[in-house]
Design goal:
The protein is an all-alpha fold. The protein folds into four domains: 76 residues, no CATH class; 136 residues, no CATH class; 73 residues; 72 residues, no CATH class. Helix content is 52%, strand content 2%. It has 19 helices and four strands. The strands form two sheets. A two-stranded parallel sheet has the order 1-2. The protein has a two-stranded antiparallel ribbon with strand order 3-4. The radius of gyration is 56 Å and the shape is elongated.
């Protein structure tokens, strides 16, 4: 909905009068009149001047029916007594899908001659204000910024970054809000061709002798480059890490792999490097303090003074005594050019001892790979010792299991007793433990009631935990069946 004002209501009275003339007895006219009265009751920005204009216009509407005219006049007269209405007029965004046809020839000339981007945006904002726009939608802002990008590209200027284009969108909205509104009636959506707005609107939007140029260049490549919101994908690369913590290593002081490796070596072998520096000092370096500062920047000043004091003390003669403090040891003189024989012997012995210290220091200063291998081997050894100790403790704690007492078996019946004993009428043994002894080894004999004494057995007698009667062979099975029948007949015989 466009923003309503007094002029809009006055024009609507004229349109309502024309509709009543065309459709005098139509319910459409009555419905539109009721809608008009609801609109003016919901409008809150009335002044005495606007009410007078409304009364004059409604009084001049002679083509309106008398009843409708009286209703409209009563509604206008009671506007000052309105306390509120259920209808609320709000401002919504107005969209211009194609802005280029609405620009005039002077507008295009000014856009191509202006060098400031702010001036170009201000020119487009003034044109939109003259067209009756009060609130912009995103598509309208995109059209304006795309026109500026197209003009800059034609001028040979370099393309703007996504962040700069997004900033231009924000600037355009601020510039538009700073400009005063015009008296031209607006629309919620402007058509692609200005002539569709009507000749009356064209006369109000453009001055006398000024008409739209109707130019419609292709803006599609430039519309695609405009990020309207700060969450656009083209802006994610620059704003993704803004709220996160900065990297631990500054960008200006990035270390290479070799430098990081050297720093790790120095971290685990500072004493060895200090001993090597002491040997270099014994060989006659002229600037010990400066050299230590340049080569060993990680050492504290106190450590540098102590290392230099030790190296200077080893190069002096035995009879020399120095009363300087530790801080003055850095200013010690070099050994004389021709020392006495004893001093020469001392100097010759000192490098030997220093060389031994240097060798031991080199052994201590291991590479990063050797250090990792050594620590890994220690972990493996500790793990193996732990497993071995746990195994020994488990064997020591292992005790013989306590024998649980079993419940005695119940008395067997006569049938089970005879079957388990395997005694048949012919005296053959066919019990459950039927075995054959060959060469001192025990062989299980297969065959049972289920398989009728099959010597190859079945799934029942193949089970090593089989507790039934084993009948090895068909003859043993027949004898068992005959004995079973005789026993059964004996039980059924009447007692005498």
């Amino acid at each position: 909905m466009q923003r309503y004002g007094c002029q809009d209501f006055v024009e609507e009275i004229a349109h309502l009068q024309k509709l009543a003339e065309m459709l005098p007895d139509s319910p459409v006219t009555e419905s539109m009149a009721n809608t008009f009265m609801a609109k003016i009751q919901g409008f809150q920005s009335w002044s005495s001047e606007s009410i007078c204009q409304m009364l004059a216009k409604a009084g001049e509407a002679s083509k309106l029916p008398e009843a409708m005219k009286a209703k409209i006049l009563d509604t206008i007269q009671n506007l000052s007594m309105n306390t509120g209405s259920q209808l609320k007029l709000v401002n919504t965004g107005q969209s211009v899908q194609r802005l280029c046809p609405y620009l005039t020839r002077p507008d295009w000339v000014a856009l191509s001659t202006l060098t400031s981007q702010t001036d170009q945006l201000e020119l487009l904002a003034k044109r939109l204000r003259a067209m009756g726009l009060h609130s912009l939608k995103e598509c309208t802002k995109c059209q304006a910024v795309a026109i500026v990008l197209m003009v800059q590209a034609s001028q040979g200027k370099p393309s703007l970054s996504a962040a700069a284009i997004n900033s231009a969108v924000q600037d355009f909205g601020i510039i538009f809000q700073s400009l005063p509104s015009s008296n031209c009636p607006g629309a919620s959506r402007y058509p692609d061709h200005p002539s569709e707005m009507g000749q009356l609107w064209l006369s109000k939007a453009y001055g006398p002798g000024d008409q739209p140029d109707l130019q419609d260049p292709c803006l599609a490549p430039f519309l695609k480059k405009v990020p309207l919101r700060s969450t656009h994908a083209s802006l994610a690369g620059g704003t993704r890490c803004r709220s996160k913590r900065p990297p631990a290593t500054p960008q200006g002081s990035t270390l290479s792999f070799d430098q990081e490796l050297e720093m790790l070596k120095l971290r685990h072998g500072i004493q060895a490097q200090a001993a090597t520096q002491g040997t270099a000092t014994l060989q006659g370096s002229q600037g010990p303090t400066a050299a230590a500062t340049a080569v060993l920047p990680w050492l504290s000043p106190r450590s540098m003074v102590q290392s230099h004091s030790q190296s200077a003390a080893s190069t002096t003669a035995p009879g020399q005594v120095f009363g300087q403090s530790t801080a003055s040891a850095a200013a010690l003189p070099l050994p004389p050019a021709s020392p006495p024989p004893e001093a020469t012997t001392r100097v010759e012995a000192a490098p030997t001892e220093t060389t031994a210290k240097e060798d031991s220091a080199k052994q201590d200063a291991k590479t990063l790979q050797e250090y990792e291998q050594e620590q890994f081997q220690k972990l493996l050894d500790a793990k193996a010792d732990k497993k071995k100790k746990a195994k020994e403790d488990g064997q020591a704690d292992q005790k013989p299991k306590k024998q649980h007492m079993k419940r005695p078996a119940a008395a067997m019946s006569t049938r089970q007793s005879s079957a388990n004993q395997g005694t048949t009428c012919n005296g053959h043994e066919a019990g459950k433990g039927a075995t054959a002894a060959k060469g001192g080894s025990t062989k299980i004999l297969y065959g049972c009631i289920r398989c009728r004494g099959n010597v190859k057995g079945c799934s029942s007698c193949w089970d090593p935990n089989f507790r039934g009667t084993r009948l090895h062979g068909r003859q043993a099975w027949r004898e068992y069946i005959e004995a079973h029948k005789a026993n059964k007949a004996m039980k059924k015989a009447p007692k005498k």
